[in-house]
Write a structure and sequence with these properties.
Strands 1-2 form a two-stranded antiparallel sheet. Helix 1 packs across helix 6. With about 190 residues, it is mainly α. A hairpin with a 5-residue loop joins strand 1 and strand 2. The protein has 9 helices and 2 strands. It has a domain of about 130 residues. This is AcrR family transcriptional regulator.
């Protein structure tokens, strides 16, 4: 196995632990044990826990940006364009929940000494999304809270599903739950567009 293959394997394991346990709750020994390497090998291949955490964040943010890019490139300044763009964001997170989980860990004050995470990893994609969406939205819409409503709704749905009639729970992986969630997101988006 090449050095890059080892580093990639370490990052894949680390992303799962950082998403589930947070940065503060994960140590290199846990990662090393899961990968089947010594701590020294993990340290050498990853640059250490801090560098590994930042690289995991970078990888996930880049994956999401790549997935959303076609909707950005084909964006139209109307409700259909907004829906296509947000659907890409939601679809990515439905299939790749680790990035949202890392953000929730941050919201719970995980890795609080990392002051640069939001500036490096949240601001650029949020600013791009805001810049793309803004011309399609009503003038009175504050684009950043509008984006956060989608982020929070998506994470809430993906972590707990939704309660519906008779207190029945639709899990986030159920076709009915996904259909109803997306329909409601689309109704919300319709309120933002003239």
């Amino acid at each position: 196995m090449t050095g890059e293959e080892i580093a990639q394997r370490i990052r894949l394991v680390a992303r799962r632990f950082f998403a589930e346990l947070g940065y503060d709750g994960t140590d290199l020994k846990t990662i090393a044990d899961a990968v089947g390497l010594s701590m020294a090998e993990v340290q050498s291949a990853s640059g250490g826990k801090r560098e590994l955490y930042l690289r995991v964040f970078r990888d996930l943010v880049d994956e999401q940006a790549e997935f959303v890019a076609p909707a950005v490139a084909e964006f139209t300044q109307d409700l259909d364009g907004v829906i296509r763009l947000i659907d890409r964001y939601v679809f990515y997170n439905m299939e790749n929940r680790e990035l949202l989980a890392l953000w929730v860990q941050r919201w719970l004050s995980d890795a609080a000494d990392f002051k640069e995470v939001e500036r490096i990893f949240w601001a650029p994609p949020a600013e791009q999304l805001a810049d793309v969406m803004r011309p399609a939205l009503r003038e009175d819409v504050d684009v950043y809270p509008a984006i956060w409503m989608i982020v929070w709704s998506t994470y809430g749905f993906l972590t707990g599903g939704m309660l519906v009639e008779g207190a029945a729970r639709l899990p986030p992986d159920s076709p009915e739950g996904r259909r109803r969630f997306l329909a409601q997101i689309h109704r919300y988006l319709a309120t933002l567009v003239p």
